[in-house]
Write a structure and sequence with these properties.
twelve-stranded mixed sheet, alpha+beta, acyltransferase activity, transferase, Aminopeptidase, 10 helices, 3 domains, Acyl_CoA_acyltransferase
Length: 375
């Protein structure tokens, strides 16, 4: 089955495919930082997917990742292996381009699991009654302007670098000026052009939807929460996208029951040595040890087989060789790398054999991996 890159000539048939697959009526446009793959059958476009150029924070460092989206197969071509062929080609493409990880939101998890992706984090929205937001002084805010864009991004990255899984929102996949298109963009200014925190939101028929509530300190977070509370009398509730788990988990007065909407995302280790080399490993400081692995991955044979994980005082690398004492299925690599599942859970799921306690120690317990962007 021929698999090739999408070209501008494909935009019209791709738009028709998206209307059939997703019910979209908006025209398909090429986006910076995103490329596409197309599958052909009988000389016609049978399926397609998009790969965005992302970087995810893991252990405080960014790891290049391919964000998979828009996976669609024309109804006449379904059941003929089109989606599987596209995913196999995407794995090779991402490896060739140095994207050591791949992340996606799965509407059909079985398809992606068959190719090595596995649930590794969450995207959450919380629905808050306004009376669950602590009363207090509002932050001294002003509307954002174009000159704030670099400082806004720096403020976001200071937070995101401490939350495993978050994207760095770098160009070209992200356009910094897009934040100014939000209906609400409130900035808490600091000294010398610094931003202490900011709030972005949209108002629609369902109420107020908060996209980002980001702050460098508790006082600024509480001040921005107080700004949300000022909507009392107009609205009863607000929907908050969880960008900072400290804001929603530690600084609001959630009762024993609350409403949350969680979207699971799946992670795939595309190139284990490259992913391990790029990731930060705070828990490896002062640790010197090795773990002999056997990686079972028929769809990424370049890192399959016996590998040795070498830990030397904060640095971790993967090299060929070893005795294969810990056997890891491809689907185990993502949840382990993210810290979403420990070796005991992976063993119970049939994805790991052997003693994985050192693997657990390396990833530590940094909290639930999160994304705050949907693609």
């Amino acid at each position: 089955m021929p698999i090739r890159e999408l070209t501008p000539d494909d935009l019209e048939p791709l738009g028709r495919l998206h209307r059939v697959a997703f019910g979209r009526s908006d025209p398909v446009e090429a986006r910076p930082g995103t490329r596409g793959l197309a599958a052909e059958l009988d000389g016609r476009l049978a399926g397609a997917l998009a790969i965005s150029d992302f970087h995810q924070f893991w252990g405080g460092s960014t790891v290049p990742a391919g964000g998979i989206g828009g996976v669609a197969v024309d109804p006449w071509a379904r059941g003929r292996g089109v989606a599987s062929a596209l995913l196999d080609a995407a794995l090779r493409d991402m490896r060739d381009r140095g994207q050591a990880l791949s992340v996606l939101y799965a509407t059909v998890p079985a398809l992606y699991r068959s190719r090595g992706w596995e649930r590794s984090g969450v995207f959450e929205r919380l629905d808050f009654p306004l009376d669950r937001i602590p009363a207090g002084a509002r932050a001294d805010t002003r509307p954002a302007v174009e000159g704030d864009l670099a400082a806004l991004h720096a403020c976001y990255c200071d937070l995101a670098s401490t939350v495993n899984g978050m994207l760095d929102r770098a160009a070209p996949a992200f356009r910094a000026a897009d934040v100014l298109e939000r209906a609400v963009v409130s900035v808490v200014p600091g000294h010398d052009g610094e931003v202490r925190g900011y709030l972005t939101a949209e108002r629609d028929a369902e109420g107020l939807r908060v996209h980002d509530l980001v702050a460098r300190d508790a006082a600024t977070q509480l001040g921005l929460l107080a700004q949300l509370r000022s909507w009392a009398g107009v609205l009863e509730r607000v929907a908050v996208r969880v960008t900072d788990p400290a804001t929603t988990g530690l600084l609001t007065d959630q009762a024993i029951r609350f409403t949350t909407t969680a979207s699971a995302w799946l992670l795939r280790v595309v190139d284990l040595p490259a992913a391990v080399a790029a990731r930060g490993w705070p828990a490896a400081e002062g640790l010197t040890t090795t773990v002999d692995l056997e990686v079972v991955d028929e769809h990424a044979p370049w890192h399959a087989g016996r590998r040795r994980l070498v830990v030397e005082d904060g640095r971790v690398r993967v090299e060929a060789g070893g005795g294969g004492d810990v056997r890891l299925h491809a689907r185990a690599l993502g949840p382990w790398f993210s810290g979403m599942q420990d070796s005991s859970a992976l063993r119970r799921a049939g994805l790991l054999d052997g003693d994985g306690r050192v693997l657990d120690r390396l990833v530590g317990a940094p909290g639930v991996p999160r994304l705050a962007d949907f693609f």
